[in-house]
């Protein structure tokens, strides 16, 4: 059995986890900074890195204690080295290097996007009968949709990636966060939009679906702008209305109540439509065996339902707590790297703009 301690500090979650053989979670501790950043309506980078400094060692100790594992029982450390906020990444990477040096342990550097993808290997997937699901089968298509990235990836084996498309402007999660702000739904945006959309009509507004049947790249900024124009029109402001979005009947100086639920539901449906359409097309073109969803937006219940209902092949996604940032996924990805002999050295640095190719 190989035990990996994963460390994750790329954004606003300080996390540590112990995972056995890349699949079985012995512990997963997440100190969320959501409350700290809420009043800024987004992550305040300097505050995030300071909070990581305060939390990192208690979180690591807690992960070891919950797993009932001693330092000597661990085989390796795995840490996120990018992408992410530079000041946040530095805390995790320097902590991991210090521990590796002091304890004479190996260290593996993990790409945060690969980590999201490897959340699908974690055996939190034991079915109701308690039997662990088989690990994903290659080749597969993975849709990684987070706050900073939207990547559609063909994976032919461990660490063999072919990026088919990515966003050319806003990431899917970023669009959720910005639209939540426009609709006055608060932070973090994704769960707030999902909750607001629950009673809404997804067909109430005919919103744009950019690059709809065109290649594998995504674009979400036009959708966000269309929502902005509708919000302005309801507020009686002279915005530039999107040509496809219907305007309220009596547009003018008089303010009207914003149909928040209908707007949230229509926006969510537009994002999900594009994500499902492109994933389905890629799965067909490359004759894959299954589809994996990963990243914070993969916890969206409508995306999960629609992807499962509309695709003819198996669709797998982690439970919501393993879709958003955590360290179990870092330990899982780290395990598969460790197995190949990959090791980080003392010159390991952070890579805020790291990509998956
Ligand atoms: O993967 P993640 O935790 O952090 C990054 O690596 O970015 O993703 C965070 C993003 C945020 O933009 C958040 O609004 C979005 O994931 N998100 C959701 C949902 N839960 C989180 N988006 C849509 N629906 C959700 N239920
Ligand atoms: Zn993430």
Structure, described:
By secondary structure, the protein is an alpha/beta fold. It folds into 2 domains: 3-122 and 322-338, Nucleotidyltransferase, domain 5, CATH 3.30.420.40; 140-317, Nucleotidyltransferase, domain 5. 39% of the residues lie in helices and 18% in strands. It has helices spanning 34-38, 45-67, 86-103, 112-118, 172-182, 189-197, 221-234, 260-285, 301-310, 320-323, 328-339; strands at residues 3-8, 13-20, 24-32, 76-82, 107-111, 140-145, 150-157, 160-166, 290-294, 315-316. The strands form 2 sheets. It has a 5-stranded mixed β-sheet, sandwiched between helices. A 5-stranded mixed β-sheet has the order 8-7-6-9-10, sandwiched between helices. Helix 3 (86-103) links the parallel strand 4 and strand 5 (107-111). Helix 4 packs across helix 11 (328-339). Bound molecules: 5'-O-[(R)-(carboxyoxy)(hydroxy)phosphoryl]adenosine and zinc ion.
SSE diagram, text form:
Blueprint: E1 3-8, E2 13-20, E3 24-32, H1 34-38, H2 45-67, E4 76-82, H3 86-103, E5 107-111, H4 112-118, E6 140-145, E7 150-157, E8 160-166, H5 172-182, H6 189-197, H7 221-234, H8 260-285, E9 290-294, H9 301-310, E10 315-316, H10 320-323, H11 328-339
Helix pairs in contact: 2-3, 4-11, 5-6, 5-7, 5-8, 6-8, 8-9
């Amino acid at each position: 059995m190989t035990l990996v301690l994963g460390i994750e500090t790329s954004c606003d979650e300080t996390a540590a986890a112990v995972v056995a053989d890349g699949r079985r979670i012995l512990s997963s501790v997440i100190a969320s900074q959501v409350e700290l950043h809420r009043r800024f309506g987004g992550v305040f980078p300097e505050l995030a890195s300071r909070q990581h400094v305060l939390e990192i060692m208690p979180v690591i100790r807690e992960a070891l204690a919950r797993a009932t594992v001693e330092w000597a029982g661990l085989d390796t450390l795995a840490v996120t080295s990018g992408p992410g906020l530079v000041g946040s990444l530095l805390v995790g990477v320097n902590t991991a290097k210090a521990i590796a040096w002091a304890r004479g342990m190996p260290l593996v550097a993990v790409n945060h996007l690969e980590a999201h993808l490897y959340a699908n290997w974690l055996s939190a997937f034991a079915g109701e009968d308690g039997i662990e699901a088989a690990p994903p089968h290659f080749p597969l298509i993975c849709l990684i949709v987070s706050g900073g990235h939207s990547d559609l990836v063909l994976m032919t084996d461990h660490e063999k990636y072919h990026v088919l498309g990515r966003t050319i402007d806003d990431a899917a999660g970023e669009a959720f966060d910005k639209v939540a702000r426009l609709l006055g739904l608060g932070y973090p945006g994704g769960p707030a939009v999902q909750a607001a959309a629950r009673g809404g009509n997804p067909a109430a507004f005919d919103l744009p679906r950019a690059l709809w049947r065109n290649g594998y790249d995504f674009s979400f900024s036009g959708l966000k702008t269309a929502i902005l124009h509708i919000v302005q029109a309801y507020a009686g402001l002279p915005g530039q209305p999107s040509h496809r979005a219907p305007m309220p009947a009596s547009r003018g100086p008089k303010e009207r109540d914003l149909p928040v639920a209908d707007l949230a539901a229509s926006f969510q449906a537009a994002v999900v439509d594009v994500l499902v359409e492109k994933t389905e097309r890629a799965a067909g073109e490359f004759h894959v065996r299954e589809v994996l969803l990963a990243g914070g937006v993969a916890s969206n219940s409508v995306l999960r339902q629609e992807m499962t209902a509309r695709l003819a092949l198996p669709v797998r996604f982690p439970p919501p707590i393993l879709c958003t940032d955590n360290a179990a996924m870092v330990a899982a990805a780290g395990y598969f790297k460790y197995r190949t002999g990959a090791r980080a050295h003392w010159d390991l640095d952070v890579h805020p703009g790291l990509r998956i190719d």
